[in-house]
Each structure stands twice: as structure tokens, then as C-alpha cells.
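DUF7007 domain-containing protein
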Amino acid sequence: MQRERMIFPNERPVHTPWGVADYAREYAEGIVFYGTPSHGGFKLSAERLAQMHHALRERGGWFEEDCAWAKVAFAFPECFADEQREAAIRTLKDWCPDEYEAVTGETLASGDSYIKDQCLFHECHAQDWVVISAIRSDQHSGMVECIATLGGKRGEWGRSDTERRRYLVPDTEYDRRGKFGFVIDPDRHALCDGPSSFIARRAAL
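Structure:
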């Protein structure tokens, strides 16, 4: 059973990768969640860490609360509620697919992992112009002004290795973009060489 307690000022402070902890929640012996005002995560004892599959281990036994926590719940399911175990599996598949596959021996298919699907998208469109920024055009009604780079790579303005182009895309079409980005079709989407809504709106700030 989980036991939560506050850490009081007169106690020896617990230093986490995210700052000094202000509370602790013990899930089981050697499995403790520490929270700080900004972030938190699990700390595993050396014994618990040794019990984990090597693909799931984190340096120092610290597992941050956004994604890495799922490795703890997956490794020690008996210490977590049903909904937490289900969330852990979903989190690992989406954000740590390599680790999930290494532990389970499964091969995640298309649609099973956010990160794998994202990597596949960028691999397939490495030589396409992919939008990295967009704004409703003030100069062209019903159009979106898009800034695109090859493969959707991002970099600082002025870098010679990061060419950027501006295109006009119908807003109804842009609104149907996929979750990993919008791919420009040079045969249908016109280059935008005139006044820019990006510059105009920055100037108005």
C-alpha cells in the first residue's frame, strides 16, 4: 500500500535531480516517489534497480515522472493499480518503444507507438518540404502562410544549411494536417514571395 508523507525542514533533505524533495510517497520497499515544487520522480534502491531488465534501468536509479516512471510500473506491476499499469504500457509503447520491444520481444506495428510513427514520418519525408511554422495570411484570404524546410528540420534563421521557403496553403487543407506535420506539394502549393504576415505581426507587437 502506498504511504505518503511530507518531508519536514528538520529532516535530512533528499536531493533529487529536480531539486530538494518536499514530500515522499513509498510504493514498496525500495520504490519511493519524491516530489518537488517543479517536478518529481521515482528513486529505486540498488536492489530494486538490479531486479529490472537492463533496458529499463536509468542512471542513478532516478526515473522522472513524465515518461520514465512507466519503466518502474512496468517492472514492478504488483506495486501499482490497474489503471497505472495500463498507463505504463501505453507510455512505454508511445515514448520508449525500443525499451518496450527489448523487454517484451514484441515488434510494435504502425500506429502502436507515437515516437516510432513520428520517426517513420520524418524518414519518409526527409526530402520533402515540411511545414515548421504557419500563420493565417493577412494578404491572402482563406490561405495559411507556411514556412517549410526539407524534412521539417529546424534551425536558426540565417544558417546556410537550413534553407526555408514560404508557401501558401488553403486553410481548409492545412486544418486537416496530420499529427506529425504538413507536407508541401510543390505542384499545388504556391511559393509566397510577397509581404509576410509573420513579419507584419511581429512588427505590431
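The CA atoms of residues 13 and 19 lie 10 Å apart.
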